Amino acid sequence: MTPSARVQAAIEILDQVIASARDDGPPADAIVAGYFKTRRYAGSKDRRAVRELVFSAIRHSAERPDSGRAAMLAIAPELFDGSPHGPAAVREGETGAKSGIVPHWLAAELSPLVQASEQRALLDRAPLDLRVNVARASREAMLAQFEGSQATPLSPWGIRMPADSRVSDHAAFAAGLVEVQDEGSQLIALACWPADGERILDLCAGAGGKALALAAAAPGAEVIASDTNLRRLGNLPPRADRAGARIATLLLDAPREAEGLRDLAGTCDLVLVDAPCSGSGTWRRNPEGRWRLAPERLERLIATQRRVLDLAAPLVRPGGRLVYAVCSLLAREGVGQASAFLSRHSSFIATDTGLAAGRLDGVGRLLTPGHEGTDGFFIARFDAS
Which is nearest to 355 in space by CA: 183, 150, 163? Predict the structure, then answer.
């Protein structure tokens, strides 16, 4: 493919990404993969080059562009020269999409801790972090098995790999000795302080990444992973089998989750609420997430977080703890949500997470790409009296 033909391919993909972001469809990675499944003529160098163009264009624009053409014109105007198989030449007065990091409407929602000087890091390319299954292996042993790896600076379970590393075909991955997990996510599990003999509920477990981390840290605990999404929760059992972890799954029926949780009332030593959120802390991995978020969606997410926290509160036994986390850098989803929870539930008190990482943010801690080098997370702990 010529450079102009690569740009045209990127435009076609970006048109799909823009439509998918608008309609809450599949992510950009899946769209890129699907595009090339039907275009076998494209070699590996072409696929890599087009993918890089697509994600460079996505990172360039904070607001969702009008079209893939506008998105690409902003980063490669010199290739709009009318070449065969390439995009049509630039029309008089035609301009590309505007550059930006944070959508204009969202800037006021950011935590004050995320200063302008560190916002560029929100779009930096993220490394590949692995979590060692400490129930079955040591970090030192795994560092020796993964060439080019290094220990993560904050999590004692973590290994950091170059961004382009492939681990799915590594023997240690197949044996369940490591899992792909950002260091920030590992720190959430560490903030839970799981212990053998405890009943632990991961209330919004999704595919179970944090449930697996909790089970590895406390193999003698009873770990329960619950969610309302059958497809995502269904991914956990084979992962648990591979890791040698004992994790029970509990599929909840929305909006009647309270009925499904009734038998757990007042019995949990730990409830982790890793709540649905804006995902603003993961923009470096999913930069098109900025294009998916809208004011009305943010309001729905904040309402869901409040509801899930209120579902979690009666499940914690006296003396137990509730850990709230969101992969968000927005104040209303983090410290605002945590403070509101305390105002509604007088039987809980905020206590320190015990993490050395992160900056204090009200009753919790905030991790950011620019300060800690992790994905962005807010984490707070509440103890039940």
Answer: 183
State how beta strands 377-384 and 364-367 pair: antiparallel
Query: Would you call 204 a catalytic residue per the annotation?
Result: no
Q: Out of 192, 204, 268, 327, which one is annotated catalytic? A: 327
Could you write out the DSSP letters of every residue in 61-116?
-SSPPS-HHHHHHTT-GGG-S--TTSPPPPPTT---PPP-SS-GGGGGGB-TTS-G
The whole-model pTM stands at: 0.95
132 and 154 part of one domain: yes
Range of the domain at 227: 183-384
**Do 173 and 213 belong together in one domain?**
no
Phi, psi of 22 (to 5 degrees): -70, -40
pLDDT confidence of residue 163: 82
Looking at the fold, whether 227 and 322 belong to one and the same domain comes out as: yes
For the chain, the farthest-separated pair of C-alpha atoms sits apart, in whole angstroms, at 71
Report which residue type is found at 56.
S
pLDDT at residue 123, rounded to an integer: 94
Question: Are residues 204 and 338 part of one domain?
Answer: yes
CA dihedral 57, 292, 289, 322 (to 10 degrees): 170
Mean pLDDT, consecutive 10-residue stretches, the chain (385 aa), reads 94 97 95 89 89 97 97 96 92 95 96 94 94 98 95 98 90 97 97 98 97 98 98 96 97 96 98 97 96 97 98 98 98 98 98 94 97 97 97
106 lies in some domain: no
Question: Rounded CA gap, 370 and 361, in Å?
Answer: 16
Q: Which residues contact 42 (CB under 8 A, 6 or more apart)?
A: 1, 9, 36, 50
3-state helix, strand, coil in the chain (%, to 5): 40, 20, 40
Question: Is the link from the previous residue into 255 a cis peptide, with omega within 30 of 0?
Answer: yes
pLDDT at position 40 = 74
Residue 330's DSSP bridge partners are: 110
Q: What is the side-by-side strand order in the sheet with 150-151?
A: 150-151, 158-161, 128-132, 178-180
CA 178 to chain centre: 18
What 3-state class would DSSP assign to 129? Answer: strand
What was the pLDDT predicted at 140? Answer: 97
* Per-residue confidence (pLDDT) for residue 164, from 0 to 100: 83
Residue 8: partners with Cβ closer than 8 Å, 6 or more residues away? 85, 86, 87
Same domain? For 174 and 189 the reply is no
